[in-house]
Amino acid sequence: MAGRRDEVLEAAVRVLGTGGPRRLTYQAVDAAAGVPNGTTSNHFRSRALLIEGIVTHIRQLDAQDWERFAAAPAPPGPEGMAAALARTVRHVLGPARHRTAARYALALESVASPEVREHLARAQDRLLELTAGRLRELGSPTPLEHCRMLFDYLDGVIFHGIVRGEEDRDVEPGIRVLLRAFLADTAAL
């Protein structure tokens, strides 16, 4: 069962993802979480600490999602990775859409805030590690470089999906093209 702090963080992600940074106030988060006034400020004494908590919460949820989707039954090798990434994209454009919108709101805020930028960079580094590890296992000669290219592609697809309101776009063919290029000497898709 989630604790009060997790309830507040999930509500903060929803507020940020549906209303943007200006709507992210202690009162709005308290109301969204259905907790007494002052609960959010008791857990996060400043906006900077709330933002840090949100980024950490998103990072943990993203890592859990990636591990869950990577572990789901799929063909072995590159085909399985393409399927896992496609499931992830469908998830972040569907049920986790508010989290994705919150992440983009934080990315824009990071332009003016080095602290937010640092928190987001650490969160992305963890996902890079997880995914580059899979690419390494599949035989990528430069897994980190390939992972960054893959993330750039996926970020663009996800951003356009959020902006256009798409939830069920078939991204697996594009992912297969990239993986095929990365793993040309090691496997066929």
The level 1 CATH classification of the largest domain is: Mainly Alpha
Radius of gyration: 18 Å
Low confidence ranges: none
- Overall spatial form: elongated
- Any idea what the CATH architecture of the largest domain is? Orthogonal Bundle
**Count the helices. How many?**
9
- Portion in helices: over 70%
Kindly state the mean pLDDT as a whole number? 89
Describe the model.
By secondary structure, the chain is mainly α. The protein has two domains: 1-45, Arc Repressor Mutant, subunit A (Orthogonal Bundle); 58-182, Orthogonal Bundle (Tetracycline Repressor, domain 2). Helix content is 75%, strand content 0%. The chain is built from nine helices and no strands. Helix 1 (4-19) crosses helix 4 (47-71), helix 4 (47-71) crosses helix 5 (78-93) and helix 8 (143-164) runs antiparallel to helix 9. The longest helix has 25 residues, at 47-71. It is elongated and about 60 Å long. The mean pLDDT is 89.
